[in-house]
Each structure stands twice: as structure tokens, then as C-alpha cells.
Fold:
Amino acid sequence: MKPFDPRLLRHAQRSRLPLALLLLLGTAAAVLVIVQAELLASGISAAFGRRPVGQATLIALAAVFAARALLAWATEVASYQAGGAVKSALRHKLLARAVQRGPRWLAGQQTAGLTTLATTGLDALDGYFARYLPQLVLAVVVPAVVLARVLSVDLLCGLTIALTLPLVPLFGALVGMATAERARERWAALGLLSHHFLDVVTGLPTLKVFGRARAQRETIAKVTDEYRRSTMATLRLAFLSSFVLELTATMSVALVAVGVGLRLDGGHVGLRTALLALILAPEAYLPLRAAAAQFHAVADGLAAADQALTIIEPDAAAQATQTTQTTQPDRAQPGHRAQPGHPTGRPPAPGPGVTVRVTGLSVRHPGRTEPAPDDVSLLLAPGTITALAGPSGCGKSTLIDVLLGFARPSAGQVIADGLDLPGLDLPGLDPAGLDAWRARVAWVPQRPYLFPGTVADNIRLGWPDAPLDAVRAAARAAALADLPLETPVTERGGSLSAGQRQRVALARALLPGRAERPLLLLDEPTAGLDPATEQAVLAALRTEAAAGRTVLVSAHHPAVLAVADEIVQLGQLAEAVPA
Structure:
């Protein structure tokens, strides 16, 4: 864990001005330290020499104290502004990256851990920017300025400080490495606790039915105790490190004081020079000690930021591999190819549809030896319904994920109206290109997500200002006549049946204008529907295709396959089957 991570600056352009201001304020604070030491040395030496201390000296000293207080306030304001900008940018990019990676990636993550990371974890960066970073700036500027001044008045004292000063950051780095490891362990324990507690609360009814609710208390207690132990270990290390740093700094200042005292007693150095060296010596070590002490307080924030940046910044090597794989020549074989064309014998209906050509598409998954889908080619034409058929695990949902940009092919091409879809997510390209493509797609997943609100609110998700007549038309097309639009929807649609949730999601996909979202992707759209409702939904899909929309549906049901213009069989050597 680095004391200063430059990646934080790359992801927060707005924080650069406050951070530049911090550097200027740190330089001003270092100058004021020198001025204050000069005034104190002059005043004290005058008092010991029984000379009057000038009024101007006292006024200047008071002004320096006030200026240092004002600088401290300005430094805190600038640091909080920088911290707010960085946290806002990281949260925005973390959410955007999670959306870009898609539901398949999110399904492999700990929901509670991601929530804790985006909230409590990134909030811990307040301490990093408000306390640690200002001290880090002072630790760079103040010792250099103080050392230069001491060397100019007393070479021996300056050399003593120069030789002992590196000991503080050296011991701080040694202790910091151990602290960073403890912080990562503590953060992992917190994520495990959050995730396990959420799982228990979510599955509490099931646990209650099987009489296992009480047994989970012991598991939660064990996980909580592990988090307590990791927290106490981090605090214990912080206390011990503070002792080491304080001892190092105190002994270093003592060496300067002993040397100055002996030479002052021998008459080899003047009183004002000795006082100036003694006053400045602690000031050289103080920022380093403070920065090292604050590092322990902000270790959690740095650990959270490191985890967030790991998610936000994709692995360069992996992207290079994906780029090479994407540009490989097509290796499609006739046995796997769904021949493009218009099997119904009629040209595509005129309209706003989009043409998508998939050639030799294969996707390899971690932990699996065979790709799924494997070497698939097909043509999605406007005004037609294309159905994906095949056994579970053959890659039907994965192919839809590729079209959405949630998965990258290991081989093959996907061209939509001349646009290379996998190429939209390559490094160095504008990420808005992929967002613009998704804005042209309406999608119904196998397990659609509904948000708290009403049925109408969920249908309007892609078009918040949709008129009520359009919402009602979409609901009728999705066979939702039996469900009032004002019906409350709880979290994840728990107040609705599985079939109702599926139809609400379908109405959501049918609501946007066909010209805005010409590609309609449906993953098992009639799962959980009775035969009559299924026929009504399929009639709506036929209407969408007749209006020129491009429709791709993944299904097992014979009724869905019967309305398709083309059936693409995955998972076995088969040609495209005309409907």
C-alpha cells in the first residue's frame, strides 16, 4: 500500500486544484515555521542578554501564530474539497464499471461487500485527504526548508539532522508495510461479515422453516469475532508503531540538543544560533511523525481505494489478450454456422430495425474446457424473430451478453450496422460508444430486477417521462391487464409473482419507441407464464417484428420457437432451422 497513490489523482480531475493549493499552503507553513523560530530565538536571546524585546517582535510573533492557524484552517478546507471530489469520482466510476461488466460479473461478486466498499469504505478516504495528505505535504516541504536553514547557521547541527531524519520515514515504512497487510485483512473480514449477515437476513424465512435460524447465530458470532480480532491487531500495531516513531524522533532531537549544549558551554556557538537550532530541530521531525501516525488511521481508506481501483481499472494484460483474440481470423465451420438469409421467403419489413451479423463467435469461460457458444454464425435482420435453442449451458445467455457488451468473445466478430461491437470496449476508445449502443437495445433477462415503487414506475425505467397512454399500451402488449399500474412493488419485486415480474420487464422493453431501441433481446421471456398469457406475449413479439424491430429470443418452449422466423440451434452440429 503506497503512502500516496497517483491513481487517485487520475480518477479525480477536480481534486488537482485543491491538491495544488495544499502544496502552496504547505510551503507557506514551512516559511512561517522558520519565521517563528527566528523571532523566538531573537526574543529569548534578547531577554537572556537583558536587552529589551522590541514591540515589533511581539506583534510579528502574534501575527505568525495567527497566520499558522489560518493556514491550518485553509489546509483543512482544501483537503476536504479534494477528498469529496475523489470520493465522488470513484463512486461514479465504480458504479459505471459494475454496469459495464454486467450481470454475469456482478453475480460472482459479494453484494454486501460491494455496497460496503462504495459507502463505508470510500468514506474512510476523508481521513486520508483531511489528515494524512496535508501532513504528507508538510513532511516533504517542512523538513527540507528547516534543514536548509539549520545548515546555513550551524553545519554540525544540520548534518546531525540530515543523518537522523531518514530514520523516521524508514521505520515508518517498515511498520507501514505490516499495517497495510493488517488493514487488508481487516477489510476482508468486514466484507465477509457484511456479506454473511446479508445472506442470513435474506434467507431467514428458509432457515426458520428448516429450524436452522439459531445455528446461524454461532456462525455470525464467529465471523464477528474474527473481525474484532483483526481490528484489535491493527490498533495494537498502530500503538506500537507510534512508540517506535516517537522514540526515534526524541532520540534524534536529543542528539542535536546535546551537541548544541556542549558547544554552547564551550563557547563555540552563540546563544541565538543555539536557540534557533534547538527550536527548529523538533519542527524537522514533527511532520514526519505526524504523517506516519496518521497513516494508521487512514489505512482502511487506502485499502478500500485500492480495491475500488482494482475494479475500475481493467487488467491491461487481459485486455491485450482479448484484443488479440478478437482480431483472430474467423474459424467458423459449416457444421456450426447458422446460415444467414430470410427463411420465411420475404424481405425484412421496413422500419427502424438494426442488422447484426455474428460470424464464428466463441466465448471461453474460466474453469471450462469448451467454449460456449462455440463457433456460431447468424444474421439478425430487421422485421424478423430469431430464436436461440439448445440445452442449458450451451451459451444462449452468453451470446446475448456479447450483444450487450457484458461479455467479450474469444474468437469471431459481431458487426451491427457496420459497427464492431467487441471493439467498443477496447482500451483507449471512448466508453460512451458502448453506452450509445446499449441505448439502442431493449433487454429482458431471465431474472429481471424490479425496483421499489409501482408497476408504472418500473415500466418507465428506460423512459421516465413516458406518457401514461404509452405505459398502458406497453402493459397491454405484455399481457398485464390483470395488474393495475398503481400496484406497489417491493424490493426485487417480492410483492409480485414470477410471471408478473417477467411481464413487467417485458412491458419495460416494449415501452421505448422502436426507432430509439430497434434491437429487442429476450432471454426466456415466457418462463413462468400460463399458455394463454404466453400466446398473448408472443403475439406482441410478432407485432414488434412486423413493425421492423429486430428480435432475438432465447427459449426452450416449443410455442416460442414456433413464432420464430429462424431457429439457431446451439450446442450441437446443426444448421439454422427455418421456422
Observations:
- The domain at 7-312 is CATH 1.20.1560.10 (ABC transporter transmembrane region fold).
- The radius of gyration is 34 Å.
- The chain has two domains: 7-312, 331-578.
